[in-house]
Amino acid sequence: xxxxxxxxxxxxxxxxxLFSALFFTNSVNAQIGCSGERVLWLETxxxxxxxxxxxxxxxxxxxxxxxxxxxxxxxxxxxxSTQQKPEWHVSADHTxxxxxxxxxxxxxxxxxxxxxxxxxxGFLEGNYNISLYVMNVDTLGICxxxxxxxxxxFTVEYLSSANTWIxxxxxxxVAASVPQSPTSTWVNQGGxxxxxxxxxxxxxxxxxxxxxxxxxxxxxxxxxxxxxxSYCAAAGPMPIELTSFTAHNKGTGVSLDxxxxxELNNDxxxxxxxxxxxxxxxxxxxxxxxxxxxxxxxNAFDANPVSGINYYRLKQVDFDxxxxxxxxxxxxxxxxxxxxxxxxxxxxxxxxxTFNSATSQTVSARLMDITGKxxxxxxxxxxxxxxxxxxxxxxxxxxxxxxTIRNNSGEILYNGKVVKQ
Length: 421
Hints:
This protein has 421 residues and is mainly beta. It folds into three domains: 7-232, Jelly Rolls, CATH 2.60.120; 240-333, Immunoglobulin-like; 339-420, Immunoglobulin-like, CATH 2.60.40. The protein is built from one helix and 26 strands. The strands form five sheets. Strands 1, 2, 3, 4, 6, 10 and 12 form a seven-stranded mixed β-sheet that branches.
């Protein structure tokens, strides 16, 4: 939108340029976050060089425009550059991906973005955090003293047992206006919200809604990226004093040990396990001491860990159903060993190898000369029990070679020298 500046407006622009040169940089503000953060949802808007729409942008607030300059109020696109009008800043997205995209908007007063997060096991009461990065894409001085500045509103709600949306404590939150700046500047905004106790009912859905409280007009233009919603796992103390929580290998299983120095209304502990630190299942339940002022030692055993990294945490539950989580501990569990023997070493035309495997699997055999050059390779399907496999190597020159055998996870099962006669 073109502006016919008065003399006062021009003087304002000059002053603003001088002021901002002293006090603005293109670095972001201190990041908004929480202690013990567990990220539940993150929107980076992906990568690419072509314009796209977003299913989370509300059509009642914004209209998707595929091509051309974003000159009209209330239009948007997901794109890899902020300069969607000639007078806007030229900047890449905040995430830093190659051809990283962001949401770019010619704003008006609207509720423009909404996303629902689902947690099958339910959301725990406690503190949650939302943060995002927003940029005023108008170059400094655009619109003069009448410049309109983007002002975001964060609304966070949970779906109640009555199937109605209820605002979490702290919602809605109105952020500060996003100022113009001489260079492209990402500003971190957001805040904390509390999910109150909902008794025996655990909400499984939380809805995030973003609005722009500034009317359409010159100056209300912005880019948004890296929208994150997190659970603040360390926001409050457990109703017990947990002095230790450890995991160690014991036979083919994992032993979990923990101690408390005091307990208050402690009903029981659930020991939960995950293979990705995100999706959790209950291994077993251990009865708590109720009320105690002395040291209590506890133990549980996971007889069926997976091969690889196993994650464990304690869910402590009060008599009234309230619960808190401990820190997460991890331990690596080795899978069943595969015994490998080279039968013919030295060998002539065929290199023979025997396997004693507890499970069926696929392995790769690679033979390299002493310079590291690959000279022979085969993939073998190994059944459980004793199996013999042969690697054809009659065309090789006499000398020393290195045989390496890996499983389908890339783990080295055998690495040794062999000699061709």
